[in-house]
Amino acid sequence: MFFKKKKNTFMIPVSGEMIPLSMVNDETFRSGMMGCGFAIKPSSQNIVSPVDGTIKMIFPTGHAMGISFQDGKEMLIHVGIDTVELQGQGFQVMVKQDQKISAGDSLLQIDLPFIEEKGYDSVIIIVFPNESELHLPQLPKQVTCKETITIF
């Protein structure tokens, strides 16, 4: 049997509780200034690529990366609130800029206990800067890494 990949599916990048951006403790993301999206309060430490695409940007501290994928869509994955202050501690980047990636590839390992022990919110924020609307499930919702949902 042959299965055609749906262009509008998105793989959950990390297990945890999926929440709306309105529940994030950062005004820039909460207000939608960075784009529409959602967040996940993680219960696991491996973050995988939610889509097939290309790594377009990796912040030097490893806490954020940009991915371009189908039809010019882009996303930003941002780990934690103010975690840039950790200067890379607690983050192990598994990819390089301009690297081609497939949905499910490991992008980043995070040390959740370390981040939380240092007093930082470990929420993982996923935003789509060029999208005006997403079709999200009712949130909050428990999700599992590599589970697929339809958002576009």
UniProtKB/TrEMBL annotation:
Domain PTS EIIA type-1: residue ranges: 26-130
Keyword Thylakoid among UniProt keywords: no
SUPFAM superfamilies named among the record's database cross-references: Duplicated hybrid motif
Domain of life the protein comes from: Bacteria
Protein keywords: Kinase, Phosphotransferase system, Sugar transport, Transferase, Transport
Pfam families xref list: PTS_EIIA_1 (PF00358)
Classification via NCBIfam families: PTBA
Record's protein name: PTS glucose transporter subunit IIA
